[in-house]
Amino acid sequence: MSSTLIALSTLLGLAAASIKSCPANAPISCQTSGTIQNTCCTEVQGQILQTQFWDSSPATGPANSFTIHGLWPDNCDGTYEATCDSSRAYTDIDCILQNKGHGDILSYMETYWKDYQGDDESFWEHEWSKHGTCYSTLNPSCYTNYQPEDELVDFLNTTITLFKKLPTYDWLASAGITPSSSKTYTNAQITNALKSKFGATPILSCTSGKLNQVEYVFNVRGSVANGQFIAVNPTGTKGNCPTSGIKWLPKDLSTTPEANEGSCS
């Protein structure tokens, strides 16, 4: 199939409304040479990885779905910058979302963006501070009428919006690949099933031969908040799953940790 293109501008209606507009012909990330002139409209770290977990024990999330790991920028070659702005290492993300009227985002995250130890809030804070603060197109200077944490809301919303468009469990199940305590699969079986839906090669990661992570790679035209995400093959980043004998274990929901719940004033 042709490469997947997801236009977030038609899906998002949150803080992205105050993001500065970009020209329709803005350069696509990772496809420019030399210095990027408008870092609000072309990502400096331009290869974007939507990363999903499969935790079987301790189990996280629903039995029939992967969960969100994060949305990672890299330098188009597998290297990346991290923790780029400690002054925006926001905490109490659950309270920020509630106070800004985005309880719907928080509710989705509480189901699909899970920490294997039950500390979802710390996990979200880590993903934002390590990766989210490094997006050039989400810099506060890229907004008009900027309000604190607008870019955090956009980061979280983009991450879950892409996740909803990448139903890994369903794509594998449609190819006859389902979790099993005894059956194994080849790397090619899993890769081809996902590639046929996504339009580009995903990155598969395993622990002791067990599938536990899938990464989908994009370049983006415009802002991460409301741009066009174009499926591409990864450059510089490789998975570590074996060529055969890959196990995809069912989730043991009896091992799911109880989430730590905070309170907002």
UniProtKB/TrEMBL annotation:
Classification via CDD domains: RNase_T2_euk
EC class of the enzyme, as a word: lyase
Domain of life where this protein originates: Eukaryota
Enzyme active site: H69, E127, H131
CC annotations in GO: extracellular region
GO molecular function terms attached to this record: hydrolase activity; ribonuclease T2 activity; RNA binding
Gene Ontology biological process: RNA catabolic process
UniProt key word Oxidoreductase: no
EC number(s) stated in the UniProt entry for this protein: 4.6.1.19
Family annotation (PROSITE patterns): RNASE_T2_1 (PS00530), RNASE_T2_2 (PS00531)
Keyword annotations: Disulfide bond, Endonuclease, Glycoprotein, Hydrolase, Lyase, Nuclease, Signal
Pfam name, any one: Ribonuclease_T2
Family of this protein: Belongs to the RNase T2 family.
PANTHER family associated with the record: RIBONUCLEASE T2 (PTHR11240)
Name of the protein: ribonuclease T2
